[in-house]
Give the backbone structure.
Amino acid sequence: MIRTKVGRSLAIALAVLAVAVVALYLVPRLRTKGPVEVQRVSEEMRAVTIFFGNKSADGFASETREVPAAPGFEDQVKLVLAELIKGSRDSDKISAMPDSTELLQVFWVEDTQTLVLDFNNAFTANHPGGSAAEYYTISNIIKTVSANFPQVARIQFLIGGNQVESIAGHYAVDKPIDVKKWR
Amino acid sequence: MTAWPRPFAVIALACAAFLPWMLRVAPAAAAAKSLGVVYADGRQTEDVPLAKLDKDSDELYVSAYDLARVFKATKFWNPDNRKLVLRIGNHRYMLTLDTRVVVVDETPVLLRMNVRFDEGSIMIPLEFIEGVLAPRSVEKITLDRSRLLLSIGSPEYNVTGIEIVDDRDGTRALLTLTDELLYHIDSDTPGILRLKIYGGRLDPLKYTFPEAKGLLNRVRAEQVEQDAYLFFDVKKTVQRYRVEFEGEGAAAPGKKAPRKLVLFLERGKLPEIPGADFAGKKMVEMLDEGAKRKMIEPVRKIAIDPGHGGTDNGRMGPSGVKEKDVNLAMALMLRDRLREELGVDVVMTRTDDVLVPLDERVQEANTAGAQLFISIHCNGWFTNDAEGFEVFFLAPARTEEEAQLGRDENASVAYERQGGSEESGGDIDFILWDMVQNEYLNESSDLAEMVQREMSASLGIRNRGVKQTGLRVLKGLKMPGVLIETAFISNPKEERLLLSPEFRERFIESAIEAIRKFQDRYPGKG
């Protein structure tokens, strides 16, 4: 009886020791192997800045996000603007993108340094209106593009492939907008 | 008996073996410091956590995640050889865990401390920012260790200096500007001259003079969004003031040369007025400003433009009120009262619920020969938080260089369309109109400031200020013009105000008062 009791205790002790040794060996290795969050990332990531309007429409608020590094310039622009369209989790940051906005296509015209952004119809059709709202819709795009892609000098907006006079009736977007002149 | 203590001893031993590991986590978490990061590119100032990882050194570490974010780096982690590559600007930085070596492009550089791994993050010593990144960066990077402050990039100032000169005639404040910016000065607050520089960017600290010099008691500056403000606290003996660009009109066209904007304070001949009398005393602005205060036609006819209409409802309020209806109702009310009280002609761009294209509105005002253009709108936002009124005037090409660029662009558009299009004539006109509106910039900004001042005093809602933007409906006007956003129809409280007769009355009264003041200021020839 005593023998088995001792034997059991010894077995427990050995088991604990074994676990301890394994843990001691493994835990530091797991910990130094690499950051879990970074390790998951198998591709290059790019830190980008997204601009929003603030809640009271009297200033900008920015957020830094990570997007995968895209092979082409146009794809990269699309990924960055997709973050703006997605909006912010912070309810004080307003993307000013109308409901169901989609960026259909992006073209880069190298010789005039013009970025052409072709949005779906919802971009104008679902715009709530108001000059402040329209100003931030345009400004958030311009500021986000120029912060991340300094080579862009001009932005041309298209809706479903066509030029439009304006998004909500206050600002002209029929011609390319000079990103430096926009204010 | 002898068997009992053995397993306990083993368990105790096992626990003891764990202890240092369990304790190791605690000290790092305790060192909660943070690095303040200030950006020049418009990003918000933020605090980034720092960690002290080595008990033998005071060096602070920042996580690779934060570092990459702050410097907009592209990062690549290779778990097999434990290397992290950061691409920042035109350089590639390769760091290896638990080593001091950083390979910059192809060249190895040694840090004093190792790159570490701690609590799931790669940690990089701050010396990497100072010693490796900063010297290779195009942007200016400064790390202030004592205040734990990192600033990235330097903002491009266009108001670059101030000099104060005092002599027998008076005191002059000479401001150096990189180009000729539009300004507005007023003395609404007795004893204070407020100079607003549209599109001005300055470092406020450089323009703060707490002590007196000449006729100036104090000078203070502020940067408010896109515009710069200077406040001159002047002595009681100032009789008159004047602001102008030194050698006005002398700059060679197309050449961007630094300009001096001069505020001149004239010393009065009378003895200093006792303090009690000073309140309410307004200084007189000298009117011999040459180019700035040109003679324009007296205001006899005013064009009023109710925004939107017809199929374009403008913004809908939360309870369904349509902006186009509010705009029209207020515009018609203003028309009648202007005729009655100021005896002026009024031309309307629409009097019914119809959609008039923006170009036609402008054309109508131009062909009618109006001397003022006032567009009436209600504002709207994505949430119901935004509130207040604002006044806009047109931002045309701001410098001669930009104006030339605009002319080139427009000319090429006109040229391209000359072949087939019937509308090519319209395009050419449009270019000319743009230039014309440039001429009324000062008058438009004056009108906008006057409207703002009156409305600020009487509307009882937030004053969002005067703004200069590229609003389409103001393009091509052959007269001074402003657009008034009366209130936010998207805000339930202001939507109700827009429907209330009292609010409308206050709007009408302040608009009329502003126009009256504009008429006084620009009496016109004859």
The helical segments of chain A are 2-33, 36-40, 73-86, 122-125, 131-148.
